[in-house]
Amino acid sequence: MLSDPALADLRALLGDRLSLSTAVLAEHATSESLVTAGLPDAVAFPRTTAEVAALAAWSSALIARSGFPASRHALADSV
Fold it and tell me: What are the residue ranges spanned by the domains of the chain?
């Protein structure tokens, strides 16, 4: 679950284009994958390339890296 400061950061980047609505979260919780996932913490609706870049930069602090290619030593659990 995202912390309050993390949600505030995302809200600062996207304003009302960040959704915490249960209906929107449920809509984005499924895919064609056979893996069952839970609800996302939030759903972002960026409008510009700059907003996508800002989201990628923001999220890079949350993504654990091992320094190895993804096929080796990948993290087994979600972060």
Answer: 4-60
